[in-house]
Each structure stands twice: as structure tokens, then as C-alpha cells.
Amino acid sequence: xxxxxxxxxxxxxxxxxxxxxxxxxxxxxxxxxxxxxxxxxxxxxxxxxxxxxxxxxxxxxxxxxxxxxxxxxxxxxxxxxxxxxxxxxxxxxxxxxxxxxxxxxxxxxxxxxxxxxxxxxxxxxxxxxxxxxxxxxxxxxxxxxxxxxxxxxxxxxxxxxxxxxxxxxxxxxxxxxxxxxxxxxxxxxxxxxxxxxxxxxxxxxxxxxxxxxxxxxxxxxxxxxxxxxxxxxxxxxxxxxxxxxxxxxxxxxxxxxxxxxxxxxxxxxxxxxxxxxxxxxxxxxxxxxxxxxxxxxxxxxxxxxxxxxxxxxxxxxxxxxxxxxxx
Length: 327
Description:
The protein is α/β, with parallel strands linked by helices. The protein folds into 2 domains: about 15-90 and about 245-325, HUPs (Rossmann fold, 3-Layer(aba) Sandwich); about 95-205 and about 230-245, Glutamyl-tRNA Synthetase, domain 3 (Alpha-Beta Complex). It is built from 12 helices and 13 strands. The strands form 5 sheets. The chain has a 4-stranded antiparallel β-sheet with strand order 4-5-8-9. Strands 1-2-3 form a 3-stranded parallel β-sheet, covered by helices on one side.
């Protein structure tokens, strides 16, 4: 059974976790740069995990491009998917299945045949971000997946029986976070089928088994952390620390999209933009450099401190587009 078992013995273990569903862009790169600086500043290690479970969206050659783009930026790692297939999620299905079966045997998950439209129709009030609260329609409704499919003609997903309690943590960057996900989330999907785990289950199992001590990621996932803490508790795993950093957005304040221009690292490379220019701009948006400085990640290490990171989200505005050659 494949299982990433790192030989890394450092006290701090961070990770990069690109998804091969699209090219690395400025937003991904900024988060990965901060993850790298955080780990290296404490003499820690970094793992590279490929999160490729969203099969319909996986793009051919996207993984190799992501590895190449990371190296071009000057970022490295100590173990990972480029040389060890056990860091690729699609090769870890047996591991996820083990925990899925444990949940099922303990009665912590149940089959659900609700469609997105069903859930949308059941909404009675707005909820945080783009979330739709699942009203737990199928909780206790079916005794098995076979019964659920026979009743509706649809293969069921599996939802986690979310406890009605607070899940709190102290984010290294954002401070104390306390939230009751049952109030805004409802029972959430942990598997789209018996052999296809969701992001929530896979990421919790992987971070625990790979020995990740701190997760550095975008603050768009801050709220979702409370659901993951529920899974950590159910599995008996100690959660890592979390450090959620501001996203990169367009001048309209929305997450990067095609309307903001081509912000893919591969495109900037093709247009002749230097890696040092990109890293310098990313560092400046974090508060670690002046704009128009050309820098490498190694140049930044002596400057890095969490207290210097700006609270505001980075904006790809007209000056940035001119500097980076974004059309």
C-alpha cells in the first residue's frame, strides 16, 4: 500500500500542495513563496504533494509545469511528488479507503443523494462566502448506499456527521478562530463515492500521515479549517498549526481570473519576465521588499518575519501589469 513516509527529521515540516487542474499563477506563487520562507527561516523541511483527485479538471502536463515553475522561481523542497509517487494523491486511494471504511463502521458518515440544485432550493438564508448550508436532508434516511441508489437512481456521495460544537484554533497569522461549522456548513462530503475521497478527507489524512506540522495556505480556506478540525478529532489525529495568508486579487477585489489578464507563471516566463522580477513583486506585496526590487527567495530569507507580512490582500493593478507584462 503506497504511503509517503518521509525520512525528514526536522522539527518543522511544511508543504506545497499544487493541484494539476491549471497553471501556477501569481496567487499560488505568493502562497508557496511564503510557505518556503516560513519553513526555511526555522531550518524546516518542505514536502511537495500533488493533489490530483479532481479528475475531470486535471490537465495533462500541468504537474510537470508546476514543478518547473516552482524551480524557476527559486523554490525547492526536500521530498515530494516529482520523485516519489507516494506523494501523489491518486496513488493513495487505498489509504483514504481505509479511513473511509473506519468512518462507515463507526457510523460517522452516511450516503446522500441530494443534488446541488436540491441543496440550493433548501437555502433559507445566506451563509459565509459562497457556501451553501446542507440541511442534513439524508441524515438517517438510508441504511446503505444500495438503498439510496435504488430509491433515487443516483449513486450517493458520503457525508460526515458533523458534531454540533465549536471547533477552535489559533491561526499563526490571523489569531484566534472559533466557529461552529454545523451552523453554516451542515454535514459535508468526505467522499464522492467509496473510492473517491473529497479534498477535505484526503488533505487531513495526508497532512497527518506525512508529518506536516504547519499548513501555510490562502485565507480563502480559513473557514474550512473548522471542518477539517472535526475530521482530525474523529480520526484521533493531532492537527498541524495553520497559517492563512492573504490572497492575490484583481483590482476589483475578486480572486484572480482571466478578466484580470494572464497571471500564469508559465506565461510570464514565455514573455521574458525574469524570475527575480516576479519574486521581487511578490515579496513587495507581502511587505518584505520595495516594489521594483529584483530578488530571489534566498535573498529574502534574512528579511523574513511574520510580523512584516501585510494584512491586506495583494492586488494585481495597472502598475503590476506593466511591471510583469500582463495583458
